[in-house]
């Protein structure tokens, strides 16, 4: 069962005054945001255009590394190429660390991380053509990214739900190392997308409760009446953790992910 | 139309990731095997009304991620559960080894009286078996659990597992061992009239609003 968007267009009284000013960001408008050395001149303008207008699916893979702060907006094309090479080496080092664990380390890693990752990657987005079919190499790439991430950030390790976020990144960005670093950015730098830390989740739930109280007071009252569990909003946890990825059809879900990523976290 | 029932039981499905918890739930509710099942994130809910020993019982079943990390989820999840299916995968020793931890959580976080049935799932994959029936039954016996080997794929013993657990709870209510009136028992009466019948005269009739979920 999935959600659908009931009112795709809203009367202007219900929308942000700037909403209609932006069309979806396509290749040519995207390129106009760069100066000759490949720097984004006005980051804020670009992010705002993406927030209101969304991105043409064809250039998602180009834009996301910026939104997820893998590339900085003021980097030049040359600097980005250098960064990619440098990050590729760094990624290989992380992988090497994983592959050279002692037997004891490895058995702990297997129990804490790999056991679950192995089970989850084969049941993540398998209906997406990019991951479809037996022995699909992209599933193995997704697996490596997640395992390496757990080595890179042992405090976070692997949390169920991460595979759902890596999958669309890999589908769009394609390159293994680039996807890894975009995922690192996603986990660290976004505000709408919750990292799977307890305190981040609690904060997101607090925002949601506050929104419900203001926007749907009767429903909020009902939840309060149900006792302690009602306001835990268990039925919304997946929405928050996966940024609605499983709640909407792919196209809408990616649009939401993108909009979320275009908002910077508070300093 | 709204189905009336005598009791509502809160049930949990617990166990390690990938043991087939959601598939057991799906098989029980839809009588089908869930192909291409996603791993559960957060909590999912299912319910089914069953007949047990002449009583109509609504099972409200909570299914959670095998790897659940959020305090708020754990707290609410276990609170006031009357019964649980504790699931491991007969082809994975690791999931069997984790049972003790799951059991401790259930008994400390839900209630020491929670009625638990151990389910050795994926019975259809006998060729890959890593846990024998015998050792699991011994574990069940030592820990006072009921035990069945199940297959969410073929449906074997799935309904039996849920019903067996429900029947035991019902027996305990009838013998007075479980008191549905106790806070956090995980049991609710299905309608007000029944409740009043059982309620001792003079006690404050505090009727909790019934939610239709």
UniProtKB/TrEMBL annotation, chain A:
Matching Pfam families: RabGAP-TBC (PF00566)
All residue ranges annotated as the Rab-GAP TBC domain in the record: 54-264
Recorded GO MF terms: GTPase activator activity
Acetylation is among the record's keywords: no
Keywords: GTPase activation
Residue stretches spanning the membrane: none
CC annotations in GO: early endosome
Record's protein name: Rab-GAP TBC domain-containing protein
Gene from which this protein is expressed: TBC1D16
TrEMBL record, chain B:
Gene this protein is translated from: rab4b
GO molecular function per UniProt: G protein activity; GTP binding; metal ion binding
Keywords: Endosome, GTP-binding, Hydrolase, Lipoprotein, Magnesium, Membrane, Metal-binding, Methylation, Nucleotide-binding, Prenylation, Protein transport, Transport
Cofactor list: Mg(2+)
Keyword Protein transport set for record: yes
Gene Ontology CC terms: early endosome membrane; plasma membrane
Source taxon at top rank: Eukaryota
Annotated protein name in UniProt: Ras-related protein Rab-4
